[in-house]
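Ticket #4471: structure output looks truncated?

Reporter: J.K.
Steps to reproduce: submitted the chain below (367 residues) through the standard prediction queue, then opened the result file.
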Amino acid sequence: MLETAVAVGISIWLAWHRHSLRHVEVGACLAPLLLLRTERSTELALRWMAGFMRLAKAERDRLDGLQLIAFLFTFALAGVPLVLVVVRGASIAVTVIQHPFLCLRELPSNWRRVVLATDFFCTPELIPGAEQHPLLKTLELVDWLRFNVWRSSIKERVTTHSTGGAMQVAVAVLIYLPAVLYRFSVKATSIIYLPLLFIIADHPSGNLRLQLRDLAFSEIEKLKRLYSAFVIFCLNIIPATVYFLLRAWWRELVAWAQDHIPQTAIRLPSLFLFTIPNGIELDGWHIARTVNSILTIGLWIFAKEKLNHMEEQPAIAADAPSKGIAAWLAVRRVLTVYIIGCTIYILVTTVDWRAIPPIHVRWLPWS
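Returned output as attached by the reporter:
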Protein backbone atom coordinates (compact mmCIF):
# COMPACT_ATOMS: atom_id res chain seq x y z
CA MET A 1 0.00 0.00 0.00
CA LEU A 2 2.91 2.35 0.75
CA GLU A 3 4.40 1.64 -2.65
CA THR A 4 1.04 2.39 -4.27
CA ALA A 5 0.91 5.76 -2.48
CA VAL A 6 4.44 6.52 -3.73
CA ALA A 7 3.46 5.53 -7.28
CA VAL A 8 0.43 7.84 -7.20
CA GLY A 9 2.62 10.67 -5.86
CA ILE A 10 5.19 10.21 -8.63
CA SER A 11 2.41 10.18 -11.22
CA ILE A 12 1.00 13.46 -9.87
CA TRP A 13 4.50 14.99 -9.79
CA LEU A 14 5.09 14.00 -13.45
CA ALA A 15 1.72 15.45 -14.46
CA TRP A 16 2.52 18.73 -12.68
CA HIS A 17 5.97 19.17 -14.22
CA ARG A 18 5.09 17.90 -17.71
CA HIS A 19 1.79 19.84 -17.79
CA SER A 20 0.21 16.70 -19.21
CA LEU A 21 -1.93 13.82 -17.97
CA ARG A 22 -1.20 11.63 -20.98
CA HIS A 23 0.64 9.00 -18.90
CA VAL A 24 -2.29 8.86 -16.44
CA GLU A 25 -4.88 8.55 -19.18
CA VAL A 26 -3.06 5.86 -21.15
CA GLY A 27 -2.08 3.96 -17.99
CA ALA A 28 -5.65 3.95 -16.71
CA CYS A 29 -6.94 2.74 -20.08
CA LEU A 30 -4.39 -0.10 -20.19
CA ALA A 31 -4.89 -1.13 -16.56
CA PRO A 32 -7.89 -3.39 -17.30
CA LEU A 33 -5.66 -5.58 -19.47
CA LEU A 34 -3.88 -6.67 -16.29
CA LEU A 35 -6.90 -6.47 -13.99
CA LEU A 36 -8.96 -8.81 -16.20
CA ARG A 37 -6.41 -11.63 -15.93
CA THR A 38 -7.77 -15.12 -15.18
CA GLU A 39 -6.38 -18.64 -14.91
CA ARG A 40 -7.63 -19.23 -18.45
CA SER A 41 -5.71 -16.26 -19.88
CA THR A 42 -2.53 -17.35 -18.08
CA GLU A 43 -2.87 -20.88 -19.44
CA LEU A 44 -3.48 -19.55 -22.95
CA ALA A 45 -0.40 -17.30 -22.77
CA LEU A 46 1.79 -20.16 -21.54
CA ARG A 47 0.64 -22.43 -24.38
CA TRP A 48 1.32 -19.69 -26.93
CA MET A 49 4.79 -19.10 -25.51
CA ALA A 50 5.50 -22.83 -25.61
CA GLY A 51 4.48 -22.93 -29.28
CA PHE A 52 6.64 -19.90 -30.05
CA MET A 53 9.64 -21.48 -28.34
CA ARG A 54 9.20 -24.72 -30.31
CA LEU A 55 9.24 -22.75 -33.57
CA ALA A 56 12.32 -20.82 -32.41
CA LYS A 57 14.10 -24.05 -31.43
CA ALA A 58 13.36 -25.61 -34.82
CA GLU A 59 14.75 -22.52 -36.56
CA ARG A 60 17.82 -22.50 -34.32
CA ASP A 61 18.58 -26.16 -35.09
CA ARG A 62 18.38 -25.42 -38.81
CA LEU A 63 21.01 -22.66 -38.74
CA ASP A 64 24.74 -22.59 -38.06
CA GLY A 65 27.68 -20.23 -38.17
CA LEU A 66 27.02 -16.50 -38.54
CA GLN A 67 23.36 -17.10 -39.33
CA LEU A 68 22.92 -18.84 -35.99
CA ILE A 69 24.68 -15.99 -34.13
CA ALA A 70 22.53 -13.37 -35.87
CA PHE A 71 19.38 -15.35 -35.13
CA LEU A 72 20.20 -15.77 -31.44
CA PHE A 73 21.10 -12.09 -31.09
CA THR A 74 17.85 -10.93 -32.76
CA PHE A 75 15.77 -13.53 -30.94
CA ALA A 76 17.10 -12.56 -27.51
CA LEU A 77 17.08 -8.76 -27.82
CA ALA A 78 13.99 -8.23 -29.99
CA GLY A 79 11.96 -11.38 -30.56
CA VAL A 80 11.36 -12.50 -26.98
CA PRO A 81 10.53 -9.03 -25.51
CA LEU A 82 8.16 -8.24 -28.39
CA VAL A 83 6.39 -11.61 -28.29
CA LEU A 84 5.95 -11.36 -24.52
CA VAL A 85 4.22 -7.99 -24.85
CA VAL A 86 1.92 -9.29 -27.59
CA VAL A 87 1.14 -12.56 -25.78
CA ARG A 88 0.33 -10.83 -22.48
CA GLY A 89 -2.22 -8.50 -24.06
CA ALA A 90 -3.64 -10.89 -26.67
CA SER A 91 -4.23 -13.77 -24.23
CA ILE A 92 -6.26 -11.53 -21.91
CA ALA A 93 -8.16 -9.95 -24.82
CA VAL A 94 -9.11 -13.36 -26.25
CA THR A 95 -10.23 -14.61 -22.83
CA VAL A 96 -12.35 -11.49 -22.29
CA ILE A 97 -14.11 -12.13 -25.61
CA GLN A 98 -14.69 -15.81 -24.81
CA HIS A 99 -15.54 -15.48 -21.09
CA PRO A 100 -16.42 -11.84 -20.35
CA PHE A 101 -18.26 -12.44 -17.06
CA LEU A 102 -15.48 -14.65 -15.71
CA CYS A 103 -12.95 -11.88 -16.38
CA LEU A 104 -15.13 -9.20 -14.82
CA ARG A 105 -15.56 -11.33 -11.71
CA GLU A 106 -11.77 -11.49 -11.29
CA LEU A 107 -11.27 -7.74 -11.71
CA PRO A 108 -11.69 -6.71 -8.02
CA SER A 109 -9.42 -9.45 -6.67
CA ASN A 110 -6.74 -8.67 -9.27
CA TRP A 111 -6.91 -4.98 -8.32
CA ARG A 112 -6.53 -5.82 -4.64
CA ARG A 113 -3.59 -8.13 -5.35
CA VAL A 114 -1.68 -5.65 -7.52
CA VAL A 115 -2.43 -2.48 -5.54
CA LEU A 116 -2.59 -3.69 -1.94
CA ALA A 117 -0.51 -6.87 -1.84
CA THR A 118 2.29 -6.52 -4.42
CA ASP A 119 5.56 -4.57 -4.24
CA PHE A 120 9.15 -4.78 -5.48
CA PHE A 121 9.86 -7.60 -3.03
CA CYS A 122 7.39 -9.77 -4.97
CA THR A 123 8.71 -11.79 -7.88
CA PRO A 124 8.21 -9.99 -11.22
CA GLU A 125 6.07 -11.95 -13.66
CA LEU A 126 6.70 -12.01 -17.39
CA ILE A 127 3.18 -13.41 -17.80
CA PRO A 128 0.76 -12.42 -15.01
CA GLY A 129 0.01 -15.44 -12.85
CA ALA A 130 2.54 -17.72 -14.59
CA GLU A 131 4.87 -18.14 -11.61
CA GLN A 132 2.24 -20.06 -9.61
CA HIS A 133 0.46 -21.73 -12.53
CA PRO A 134 0.83 -25.56 -12.50
CA LEU A 135 1.05 -25.66 -16.31
CA LEU A 136 4.46 -23.95 -16.18
CA LYS A 137 5.97 -27.12 -14.66
CA THR A 138 4.65 -29.42 -17.38
CA LEU A 139 5.24 -27.42 -20.58
CA GLU A 140 8.60 -27.69 -22.31
CA LEU A 141 10.85 -24.75 -23.23
CA VAL A 142 9.10 -22.20 -20.99
CA ASP A 143 10.97 -22.78 -17.73
CA TRP A 144 12.84 -19.53 -18.40
CA LEU A 145 9.63 -17.63 -17.58
CA ARG A 146 10.48 -18.18 -13.90
CA PHE A 147 12.31 -15.28 -12.29
CA ASN A 148 14.36 -17.67 -10.13
CA VAL A 149 15.75 -19.33 -13.26
CA TRP A 150 17.04 -16.00 -14.56
CA ARG A 151 18.44 -14.97 -11.19
CA SER A 152 20.28 -18.27 -10.69
CA SER A 153 21.67 -18.29 -14.23
CA ILE A 154 22.94 -14.69 -14.04
CA LYS A 155 24.42 -15.29 -10.59
CA GLU A 156 26.24 -18.39 -11.87
CA ARG A 157 27.65 -16.58 -14.90
CA VAL A 158 28.84 -13.65 -12.80
CA THR A 159 30.42 -15.94 -10.21
CA THR A 160 32.26 -18.05 -12.79
CA HIS A 161 33.11 -15.03 -15.01
CA SER A 162 31.71 -16.93 -17.99
CA THR A 163 30.96 -15.22 -21.30
CA GLY A 164 27.47 -14.12 -22.12
CA GLY A 165 26.72 -12.70 -18.69
CA ALA A 166 26.33 -9.14 -19.95
CA MET A 167 24.07 -10.31 -22.77
CA GLN A 168 21.87 -12.24 -20.34
CA VAL A 169 21.58 -9.23 -18.05
CA ALA A 170 20.59 -7.05 -21.02
CA VAL A 171 17.93 -9.55 -22.11
CA ALA A 172 16.59 -9.82 -18.55
CA VAL A 173 16.24 -6.04 -18.36
CA LEU A 174 14.48 -5.88 -21.73
CA ILE A 175 11.91 -8.53 -20.86
CA TYR A 176 11.33 -7.67 -17.18
CA LEU A 177 11.35 -3.87 -17.35
CA PRO A 178 8.01 -3.59 -19.25
CA ALA A 179 6.34 -5.90 -16.71
CA VAL A 180 7.64 -3.86 -13.76
CA LEU A 181 6.70 -0.53 -15.38
CA TYR A 182 3.25 -1.88 -16.24
CA ARG A 183 2.68 -2.95 -12.65
CA PHE A 184 3.89 0.43 -11.42
CA SER A 185 1.55 2.15 -13.89
CA VAL A 186 -1.42 0.20 -12.54
CA LYS A 187 -0.48 1.30 -9.02
CA ALA A 188 -0.05 4.92 -10.14
CA THR A 189 -3.57 5.00 -11.62
CA SER A 190 -5.14 2.85 -8.89
CA ILE A 191 -7.06 5.80 -7.43
CA ILE A 192 -9.25 5.83 -10.54
CA TYR A 193 -10.39 2.28 -9.79
CA LEU A 194 -10.81 2.77 -6.04
CA PRO A 195 -14.59 2.10 -6.22
CA LEU A 196 -13.63 -1.55 -6.80
CA LEU A 197 -13.12 -1.66 -3.04
CA PHE A 198 -16.89 -1.78 -2.67
CA ILE A 199 -17.13 -5.26 -4.22
CA ILE A 200 -13.96 -6.85 -2.84
CA ALA A 201 -14.61 -9.77 -0.46
CA ASP A 202 -18.41 -9.56 -0.70
CA HIS A 203 -18.94 -13.27 -0.09
CA PRO A 204 -21.74 -15.16 1.70
CA SER A 205 -21.23 -16.06 5.36
CA GLY A 206 -22.33 -19.18 7.15
CA ASN A 207 -24.57 -17.50 9.69
CA LEU A 208 -25.75 -14.09 10.81
CA ARG A 209 -22.98 -13.54 13.36
CA LEU A 210 -20.23 -14.20 10.81
CA GLN A 211 -21.93 -11.91 8.31
CA LEU A 212 -22.15 -9.08 10.83
CA ARG A 213 -18.60 -9.58 12.14
CA ASP A 214 -17.28 -9.41 8.58
CA LEU A 215 -19.04 -6.07 8.06
CA ALA A 216 -17.93 -4.68 11.42
CA PHE A 217 -14.35 -5.89 11.86
CA SER A 218 -12.77 -7.31 8.67
CA GLU A 219 -9.70 -5.46 7.39
CA ILE A 220 -11.07 -4.96 3.89
CA GLU A 221 -14.26 -3.42 5.30
CA LYS A 222 -12.13 -1.02 7.36
CA LEU A 223 -10.43 0.03 4.14
CA LYS A 224 -13.82 0.51 2.50
CA ARG A 225 -14.93 2.74 5.38
CA LEU A 226 -11.77 4.85 5.12
CA TYR A 227 -12.43 5.37 1.42
CA SER A 228 -16.10 6.11 2.16
CA ALA A 229 -15.09 8.78 4.68
CA PHE A 230 -12.71 10.23 2.08
CA VAL A 231 -15.53 10.37 -0.50
CA ILE A 232 -18.03 11.98 1.86
CA PHE A 233 -15.72 14.64 3.29
CA CYS A 234 -13.08 15.29 0.62
CA LEU A 235 -15.20 14.79 -2.52
CA ASN A 236 -18.52 16.16 -1.25
CA ILE A 237 -18.55 18.30 1.89
CA ILE A 238 -15.27 20.18 1.47
CA PRO A 239 -15.67 21.01 -2.28
CA ALA A 240 -19.29 22.11 -1.73
CA THR A 241 -18.26 24.30 1.21
CA VAL A 242 -15.46 25.92 -0.77
CA TYR A 243 -17.71 26.48 -3.77
CA PHE A 244 -20.57 28.14 -1.87
CA LEU A 245 -18.69 30.01 0.89
CA LEU A 246 -15.47 31.05 -0.89
CA ARG A 247 -16.78 32.17 -4.26
CA ALA A 248 -14.15 34.88 -4.81
CA TRP A 249 -11.31 32.46 -4.17
CA TRP A 250 -13.06 29.91 -6.40
CA ARG A 251 -13.20 32.37 -9.31
CA GLU A 252 -9.46 33.04 -8.92
CA LEU A 253 -8.83 29.31 -8.92
CA VAL A 254 -10.90 28.93 -12.10
CA ALA A 255 -8.92 31.66 -13.86
CA TRP A 256 -5.62 30.10 -12.81
CA ALA A 257 -6.74 26.62 -13.90
CA GLN A 258 -7.78 27.81 -17.34
CA ASP A 259 -4.35 29.39 -17.88
CA HIS A 260 -2.16 26.65 -16.45
CA ILE A 261 -3.99 23.31 -16.64
CA PRO A 262 -4.76 21.36 -19.85
CA GLN A 263 -8.40 20.83 -20.69
CA THR A 264 -8.07 17.07 -20.21
CA ALA A 265 -6.81 17.70 -16.69
CA ILE A 266 -9.93 19.77 -16.04
CA ARG A 267 -12.20 17.01 -17.36
CA LEU A 268 -10.61 14.12 -15.48
CA PRO A 269 -11.41 15.50 -11.99
CA SER A 270 -15.07 15.24 -13.00
CA LEU A 271 -14.64 11.54 -12.30
CA PHE A 272 -14.47 12.45 -8.61
CA LEU A 273 -15.69 16.04 -8.08
CA PHE A 274 -19.02 17.62 -8.99
CA THR A 275 -17.55 21.10 -8.38
CA ILE A 276 -15.35 21.65 -11.41
CA PRO A 277 -13.81 24.94 -12.65
CA ASN A 278 -16.77 25.53 -14.96
CA GLY A 279 -19.30 25.22 -12.12
CA ILE A 280 -21.36 22.45 -10.55
CA GLU A 281 -21.82 19.36 -12.69
CA LEU A 282 -23.60 16.65 -10.71
CA ASP A 283 -23.42 13.34 -12.57
CA GLY A 284 -24.85 9.92 -11.84
CA TRP A 285 -21.51 8.40 -10.89
CA HIS A 286 -21.01 11.11 -8.23
CA ILE A 287 -24.36 10.13 -6.71
CA ALA A 288 -23.57 6.41 -6.97
CA ARG A 289 -20.17 6.84 -5.29
CA THR A 290 -21.72 8.87 -2.45
CA VAL A 291 -24.56 6.37 -2.01
CA ASN A 292 -22.05 3.52 -1.79
CA SER A 293 -20.05 5.43 0.82
CA ILE A 294 -23.11 6.18 2.97
CA LEU A 295 -24.30 2.59 2.56
CA THR A 296 -20.91 1.22 3.68
CA ILE A 297 -20.85 3.31 6.83
CA GLY A 298 -24.53 2.59 7.48
CA LEU A 299 -23.95 -1.18 7.24
CA TRP A 300 -21.04 -0.87 9.67
CA ILE A 301 -23.17 1.00 12.23
CA PHE A 302 -26.01 -1.49 11.80
CA ALA A 303 -23.65 -4.48 12.17
CA LYS A 304 -22.14 -3.16 15.40
CA GLU A 305 -25.55 -2.42 16.89
CA LYS A 306 -26.86 -5.84 15.88
CA LEU A 307 -23.82 -7.58 17.39
CA ASN A 308 -24.35 -5.73 20.66
CA HIS A 309 -27.98 -6.84 20.62
CA MET A 310 -26.86 -10.45 20.08
CA GLU A 311 -24.97 -10.38 23.37
CA GLU A 312 -28.33 -10.14 25.05
CA GLN A 313 -29.96 -12.80 22.84
CA PRO A 314 -27.23 -15.32 21.82
CA ALA A 315 -29.69 -17.57 19.96
CA ILE A 316 -30.01 -14.97 17.18
CA ALA A 317 -26.34 -15.43 16.25
CA ALA A 318 -27.01 -18.85 14.70
CA ASP A 319 -29.72 -17.52 12.38
CA ALA A 320 -29.26 -17.60 8.61
CA PRO A 321 -27.45 -14.62 7.04
CA SER A 322 -29.65 -11.59 6.54
CA LYS A 323 -31.19 -11.36 3.08
CA GLY A 324 -31.60 -7.63 3.58
CA ILE A 325 -27.83 -7.17 4.08
CA ALA A 326 -27.16 -9.36 1.04
CA ALA A 327 -29.53 -7.18 -1.01
CA TRP A 328 -27.77 -3.97 0.05
CA LEU A 329 -24.40 -5.52 -0.81
CA ALA A 330 -25.80 -6.42 -4.23
CA VAL A 331 -26.89 -2.79 -4.70
CA ARG A 332 -23.37 -1.70 -3.79
CA ARG A 333 -21.87 -4.04 -6.38
CA VAL A 334 -24.25 -2.86 -9.12
CA LEU A 335 -23.50 0.80 -8.41
CA THR A 336 -19.78 0.03 -8.45
CA VAL A 337 -20.03 -1.57 -11.89
CA TYR A 338 -21.86 1.54 -13.09
CA ILE A 339 -19.16 3.84 -11.63
CA ILE A 340 -16.32 1.85 -13.20
CA GLY A 341 -18.11 1.74 -16.56
CA CYS A 342 -18.52 5.53 -16.57
CA THR A 343 -14.89 5.94 -15.52
CA ILE A 344 -13.55 3.80 -18.35
CA TYR A 345 -15.75 5.60 -20.88
CA ILE A 346 -14.54 9.04 -19.76
CA LEU A 347 -10.90 7.91 -19.83
CA VAL A 348 -11.13 6.37 -23.28
CA THR A 349 -12.88 9.42 -24.74
CA THR A 350 -10.53 11.87 -22.98
CA VAL A 351 -7.31 10.41 -24.35
CA ASP A 352 -6.21 12.01 -27.62
CA TRP A 353 -5.41 8.76 -29.38
CA ARG A 354 -4.33 10.65 -32.49
CA ALA A 355 -1.33 11.96 -30.55
CA ILE A 356 -0.02 8.42 -30.05
CA PRO A 357 2.59 7.55 -32.74
CA PRO A 358 0.93 5.60 -35.58
CA ILE A 359 1.84 1.98 -36.25
CA HIS A 360 1.99 0.78 -39.86
CA VAL A 361 2.22 -2.90 -40.82
CA ARG A 362 3.28 -3.95 -44.32
CA TRP A 363 3.08 -7.61 -45.29
CA LEU A 364 4.95 -7.05 -48.57
CA PRO A 365 7.64 -4.42 -49.31
CA TRP A 366 5.73 -3.07 -52.32
CA SER A 367 2.34 -2.81 -50.58
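Triage note (M.O.): checked the attachment and the full C-alpha coordinate line is present. The chain has a mean pLDDT of 79.
Status: closed, working as intended.
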